[in-house]
Amino acid sequence: MNALPLLLVPGLMCDHAVWTPLFPCLGADRVCTVVDHADADSLPQMAHQLLASAPAQFLLAGHSMGARVALEVLRLAPERVRGLALMDTGFLPKPEGQAGYDEAAKRMALLHIAQSQGVRAMAQQWVRGMVHPDFLGDAELIERVLAMFERKNADTFERQIRALLTRPDGSDVLRSLQVPTLLMCGAQDAWSPPAQHEAMQAIMPPALVQLDLIEHAGHMAPMERPAEVAASLLGWLTRCDRFAPEAGEP
Q1: What is the DSSP letter of 95?
Q2: How confident is the model at residue 25 (pLDDT cuts 50, 70, 90)?
Q3: Most buried by CB count within 10 Å: which residue of 49, 82, 121, 170?
Q4: Reported confidence tier of residue 77, pLDDT bands at 50, 70, 90
Q5: How far out from the chain centre does Cα 117 lie?
Q6: Residue 62, SS3?
Q7: Does residue 173 sit in helix, strand or coil?
């Protein structure tokens, strides 16, 4: 049986650079495709775009904002997704009150830097809280992150911020999952911490979900610890390949 294709969904201002370090470990027998969000400014729009060009059946892995897009794909077409990996992410909408105001203000401050000083200057601020502190001195890693952001512009950043601030609540999707699901998180992820993933796990079907914490990694775990992240994904892919839908499912 041919391996199901794997669609990889990047997060805010991210692209193939998040996933490229994993490819040597994922095997040559599986088609892996990195999704591009183009000019979309909402998570449902990103999900519709993904589905328009996706194969009939596929596995889906999303990182950060990309995992929220993956949840919207499940909401729209659960019958097409045979496995789900959600990495360094969350599931709740923007909170009400002061917490929501603070989140929006933080994102808009970064947007102002991107618009006034350039995307690279913004990324230099952003990356400080997005990798494990020990990796801030890794010039090669930090340059890959900065270069990735520089491939997009401030207009794209603004659209994707809008998408995140209007994000839907993914709780109902998590409760209704019917496929093998991996939750993965950098153990030192300060933006989407392990507790957030544990809250997701608590409302998901226990027989289908596994939570893996990647030690010595922050929010950009796939770039920080590619071998460990790839090993976690390989375990999930094995579960997906062995999974048999219940009778009557498509």
Answers
A1: P
A2: confident
A3: 170
A4: very high
A5: 27
A6: strand
A7: helix
